[in-house]
Amino acid sequence: MRRFAFPLLAYAFAAVMTGTTMPTPMYAHYAAQLGFGVVTTTVVYATYAGGVLVALLLFGRWSDAVGRRPLLLGGLAAALISGAVFLAADSVTLLLIGRFFSGLSAGVFTGTATAAVIEAAPAPWRSRAAAVATVANIGGLGLGPVLAGLLVQYAPQPLRLSFVVHIAMVVLAAAAVITAPETSPRAGRLALQRLSVPPEVRSVFVVAGIAAFAGFAVTGLYAAVAPSFVVEVVGTANQAVAGATAGSIFAASAVAQVLANRMDPRRALVVGCAVLVAGMAVLAVALQTSSLPGLIAAAVTAGAGQGIGFSRGLAAIAARTPAERRAEVNSTYFGIGYIAISLPIVGFGLAAEVWGLRAAGVSFAVGVALLAAVCLAAVLVQTRSRRSAAAV
């Protein structure tokens, strides 16, 4: 079965990530059924990031010691628990538990499945394996709200059927992981994943980290409250449209990461930040004018900026990081991203309670644009300093 390991593991990766964004079109239904507002919605969404960070810290290095397959099966078990909890969810507490286990599954898969897919790639696909892993990861995130939006809008049992579908996907993914041979040589020992940045990479890391924070904050905004924007600001009650709007930011990110794969990292950070600023300008105008095409255009633009900045920022960091410190630096970088999809979104929820969705959304867009502009300026200053030093 070694020849099929590559597509099987890529499918398992995509299946797990699909489940992590499936609840997006359902938050409005849960809010109406359980009687909570936008603050609780953002807290439920942000709990996912807590699960991811726990998985990164506790299990980030385990697959090197025990193999990829046991960790992947553990991540699939967490995904099954999440789906089962959502099927029974009749309280905010169960929603929080479901999101936490969803985060655990994503946290385990983000590093382990990426490594497994790359290791399983046959020779003709080796140069494209990282891109396939990226598409499986981000593409799965984009598929989740689109698939769930269609089921919520057009199928029966809007708060149940999506999770039945995802549980079936996860069962198939478990069969895929069990069928695929182990890809890791099992070197190393069980240990907690350290989060740190060595001195020689800090200047690059700070700039890339700012870009990652800004980009992930926007993806978190769309994943958490895009349906609220569509329903309450635009006035469209169709959850399939809301799901497609949320999914478009991830689709754009995946495509941009693949297309920008060979771009110079510093140049890519400049381009990514500039595109992200443009996306936030489009978002602010779209919210002010209640424009659905504007919301989608902002998602596509911001997703492209996030994808370019994040992927090439990681490449810039990797180029400066000693090989023996790469795992902890990469985990720190991912940790910043997952903090960005949680804390700012909760802040948005609190602001929306006071100012309303439209004003909070515009303020959020301005804040992200300023952060991306700071990153853009920092990269330009660093580049100019390097040129001046080289000339001397």
Automatic annotation (TrEMBL):
Tell me which GO cellular component terms the UniProt record holds.
Answer: plasma membrane
> Which keywords appear in this protein's UniProt record, sorted alphabetically?
Cell membrane, Membrane, Transmembrane, Transmembrane helix, Transport
Name the domain of life.
Answer: Bacteria
- The yes or no answer to whether the keyword Membrane is present is yes
Q: Where is the signal peptide?
A: none
Gene Ontology MF terms in the entry: transmembrane transporter activity
Q: How does it sit in the membrane?
A: Multi-pass membrane protein
Q: State where the protein is found.
A: Cell membrane
> What protein is this chain from?
Sugar (And other) transporter family protein
Source organism: Mycolicibacterium hassiacum (strain DSM 44199 / CIP 105218 / JCM 12690 / 3849)
